[in-house]
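Hi C.,

You asked whether I'd gotten around to modeling the 185-residue construct. I have! Everything is below, sequence then structure, no commentary in between.
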Amino acid sequence: MNTVFVDVDTQIDFVFPAGALYVPGAARLLPAIARLNHFAAAHGIPLISTTDAHSEEDPEFRQWPPHCVAGTTGQLKPAETLVGAGQIIVEKQVLDVFSNPDFPVLLESLAAERYVVYGVATEYCVRCAITGLAATGKAVTLVTDAIAAVNPKDGARTLTEFAARGGTLTTVSQLETEWLSSRVR
């Protein structure tokens, strides 16, 4: 099965406590996210990393504090989440990565049968990503130990709704085991 990993918005402003819009608990995700990204690179799995890239006067800042301003440290991905060649960075200015007109074109070119999604924040950008990816008609798997929510109740609701619509929930270890066992057959 042609799989694509999608690393959603794991940027300094979101994943570090000193970040401009820290997602509670996101710092603890970095080892899992790094593990997934490096797993993708090691196994030739296409890896898309979405990133916010806001202007200094971005309209989104009427709703959220300024964050991930293009060219600032906060907009960068932590070093451990970078894998170099093969990692495709897709910038966006709003919550939904599908707002970038190049994103659907990229997905079409990758011809995935399945998307594996992780990152932050569960009930915002991750929710937009899994909803849009599911709308493509392809299988979508959400890695539950590699996501964090701003509001735990809203995050839990997102997981429940996703699973009820046919999405698959997994963990990093389950995903690795499944991938490796499917390659032995």
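If it helps when you're writing up: Residues 108 and 136 are 10 Å apart (CA to CA).

Thanks,
B.
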